[in-house]
Automatic annotation (TrEMBL):
Domain of life: Eukaryota
Family, per entry: Belongs to the peptidase M14 family.
GO cellular component: extracellular space
Transmembrane segments: 437-462
Record-annotated Peptidase M14 domain positions: 121-432
Subcellular location: Secreted
Residue numbers annotated as active site: E398
Protein name per the record: Zinc carboxypeptidase-like
Function, in words: Involved in the digestion of the blood meal.
Amino acid sequence: MFLKLFIILLLTITFVNTNKVTFNGHRVYKVIPNNDNEKEVVTNIQKQGIGEFWFDQFDVYDGVRITVAPEKIQQFQGTMRRHNIVYKEIIADLQQVIDDQLKPASRSERSTSFLSFNWDRYHTLDEIYNWLDQLHVNYPNIVTTVVMGRSVENREIKGIKINYNPNRNNTLIGMIEGTLHAREWIVPATATWIIKEFLTSTDPEMRALAQNIEWHIFPVVNPDGYVYTFTTHRMWRKNRSTRNFTSCASTGVHDDMSNGVDLNRNFDFAWMEIGASDNPCTNTFAGPSPFSEPEARAVADYVLMLNNQGRLIYYFGLHSYTQLIVVPYSHITAEESSKLTNYADMYEIAARGAEKLKERFGTEYRVGVSADIMYPMSGTSFDWVKNVTDVPVSFLIELRDLGEYGFLLPASQIIPNNLEIMDALLEIDRTTRRLGYYYSGTNSLISSMTLIGLLIFVKLFVN
């Protein structure tokens, strides 16, 4: 009997994992609950199997995006009208938008390429990894291919190290991790662009940013989930762990949703305190324990190794969407975070980056702690890194857009997104240097005012 049940379960999981999910005729609605009663009605939309949320976390006045199958549209609209809840259709056919995202941007629009890679379309994991290998071949004295670890399904978590001065002392180190959440395709498109700029740009400030710091960049930390978004389920968020598989009937979603852990809730800092779930059938399932997932563990081990090898100055976690630069910590308020050693500096660095970013295309990014500008959350990578290493600058950056396309950002927006992000990174670095963080040899950082004072003192003394 047990063997029979096991075979049925195995077949069920196999069936779930090998049949591509399509969204023909599915519509996406935006709903903003104006009070707790409306919030409860909206929450029940998913529990009743009427629609599926893009985000599990929302509150009163938040814009909730809900995917509704064709056969459920009348039921959804009827529920909204019955409770006088305002709703707006933002995507008429979800599958059409998914298909359109796979089309390269028009050649009449600005495009560029570097080796086998270009940024007029989104790339598969194999294409990204092959390109990283090419970089090592073409820049053997600067680029080293690095495998941080392996995923649940034993895929490599591959990135590169960029080091123009391997023999220097007091190495400054920056790390960029991307695609903890699988469906955020604009993230690896941005991370790879950053790599290209660090290797090819002739702009003096870009050259300085690339050469003054040893960079470790991992475009896809969740390779299994990323592959799954191409082969099976475009809207998949988590990794692909199957050990928590269970029935999701009571939550109104397919049982496949119980597979996977939200890697950005799996880090061992304030784990499961807020903004995370212990229910495998949710997108924010934090896992059975901190660092239960090999992908999160690999990031943590790698960061600790870097912190021992040099001085970690930057840690950027790239995500999408909502156009934010988020500063630590995500489980507490800004007032509580302001007590951190360099919170004011981090906020200024982020704010100046956002201001500079806006200059090119007018794109507005908000700055602050997650609880104020997004939602409270815990067990995140960039918060863990800040807490463990006291890295001066640790940001979670939510890329384009504000929800018109969300995770399905058209390929035509890849390069504009990347250009403005590079503007922000350069301004972030300018401000970081101005505040004195390049010059500190310890975690007790020297402010720019202190440096100026020292220089004045030396000049007066010498004279």
